[in-house]
Design a protein that fits this description.
The chain has 124 residues and is mostly beta strands. It is globular and about 40 Å long. The termini are far apart.
């Protein structure tokens, strides 16, 4: 069993930055694909970024490409999401997720473990 806890959310002005962290416990996530998703009320949860366990390859949604960076620290059992150039449309609850599969998935149904989420609000 993997427990994921997100932190780092908050209120920021448009153009600002936030760094989200996801701390894993219960099991090392060095052999898990890790992803960040976000969700706003009334909409489906959407993929934001992911990082592969096998080669560290990263993948981003087009809407955040060039602004967000996902990274992992296997020694600390953490995954981070650096968010720069934030826009009001980035406002959402952000979730960290872990997948035990071979390839990095971008759909929420493929992920096995989820955190409770952290709110990010970007004011205009």
């Amino acid at each position: 069993q993997v427990r994921l806890v997100e932190s780092g959310g908050g209120l920021v002005q448009a153009g600002g930055s936030l760094r989200l962290s996801c701390a894993a416990s219960g099991r090392t996530v060095s052999t898990y694909n890790m992803g960040w998703f976000r969700q706003v009320p009334g909409k489906e949860r959407e993929f934001v970024a992911g990082i592969s366990w096998s080669d560290g390859a990263t993948y981003y949604a087009d809407s955040v490409k060039g602004r967000f960076t996902i990274s992992r620290d296997n020694a600390k059992n953490t995954v981070s999401l650096q968010m720069n150039g934030l826009k009001p449309e980035d406002s959402a609850v952000y979730y960290c997720a872990a997948d035990a599969g071979r390839r990095l998935p971008t759909t929420e149904f493929a992920y096995d473990y989820w955190g409770q989420g952290t709110q990010v609000t970007v004011s205009s």
